[in-house]
Amino acid sequence: MPKLKTKSGLKRRFRVSANGKVKTAQVGKRHGMRKRSRRMKRNARGTEVLKTPGVKVFLRMAPYIKHLQ
After folding, report:
1. 10 to each of 3, 15, 55, how far by Cα in Å?
2. Nearest to 67 by CA among 50, 51, 55, 54
3. Integer Rg of the chain from CA
4. Fewer C-beta neighbours within 10 Å, C or N terminus of the chain?
5. Is 20 left (phi over 0), alpha (psi -120 to 50) or beta?
């Protein structure tokens, strides 16, 4: 059986925390900042934890990461 490859874009965009949760950057800060409210821009700083449906997609693309909650 051949080995499965991890999606290479996944390696740059996601990290697994010590507790086994998947962290990623907040969405919506690439362009078009003038039309976004101050509150939205402020809340989009930093990272966020992926929700359960996103984790399922993540695990499909990263076959050897098994220790997630």
Report:
1. 17, 9, 12
2. 55
3. 15
4. N
5. left
Residue 61, CB-side half-sphere exposure with 13 Å CA sphere: 14
The residue type of 8 is S
The pTM of the whole model exceeds 0.85 = no
**pLDDT tens, residue by residue, 8-60:** 999 899 999 988 899 999 999 999 999 999 999 999 999 999 999 999 999 99
Give me the count of residues in the chain.
69
- The structure tokens 């101050």 sit at 38
